[in-house]
Amino acid sequence: MRADPQRDAELREEATATGQAPVEDGFRVEGTLKWFDVTRGFGFLVPDTGDIGDVLVHFSILQPLGRRSLPEGARMVVDAVRRDRGYQARSVLDLDLTTAVAAPPERERAQRNDPSALIDQAGPWEPVAVKWFNRLKGYGFLVRPDDSGDVFVHMETLRRGGVMEVEPEQPLRARIVDGNKGPLAVQVEEVL
Fold first, then answer.
1. CA–CA separation, 186 and 112 (whole Å)
2. DSSP 25-89
């Protein structure tokens, strides 16, 4: 995307008019995180001042902070730009979690297996095939040749095995454990 000097000037003007300090071709927005959906990978920031409306916060701008999500109520300062569908944060300039709503205690959260922590408990490599996989949701299911039930597989498990793309019926090899909710692939690799 090429720089648009006229649009940059408009953004600066708009930032000044709404009381937001300009930041390069975007503008600085300070506010409180209204909510963040970990599954969908985004949430919204409510600005303290101005009339620009909520600002989209995508999980990709949290990665430099070592985070994949944020708790509701977190205070943020972001560099934002106007997009076709509204305002979007480009980067996080400051983050304060002291006002955030506390996450529920560990015992109240759904018990989840960390596949990488279960590798020592996994069985031997066995042939499997992709039943279906949804990239947006970040998970899918594999099937064994004997069709003894679906095997859950998470996107991170595939990535750790160097498998970047999968298609239905694609043959793979997996090491599987019995998880809290059924069979779980903890290691996956492509068939050579």
1. 13
2. TEEEEEEEEEEEETTTTEEEEEESSSS---EEEEGGGTGGGT-S---TT-EEEEEEEEETTEEEE
CA distance 95 to 65: 9
- pLDDT tens digit string along 73-89? 999 999 999 888 889 99
Burial of 41 (0-12, 13-18, 19+ CB in 10 A): middle
Residues sharing a CB contact under 8 Å with residue 29, sequence separation 6 or more, in sequence order: 20, 45, 47, 50, 52, 55, 77, 78, 79, 80, 87, 89
Q: Which two tokens stand for residue 184?
A: 């779980």
Encoded tokens for 115: 């596949």
Which helix (H) or strand (E) segment is 7 a member of? Answer: helix 5-17
The list of the chain residues with pLDDT below 70 reads 1-25, 103-114
Task: Tell me the whole-structure pTM to 2 decimals.
Answer: 0.46
pLDDT tens string 152-164 = 999 989 999 999 8
pLDDT of the residue at 2? 42
CA angle 85–14–72, rounded 5-degree value: 55
Record the tokens describing residue 90, joined without a space.
């480009």
Instruction: Map tokens 């909710």 to a residue.
Output: 181
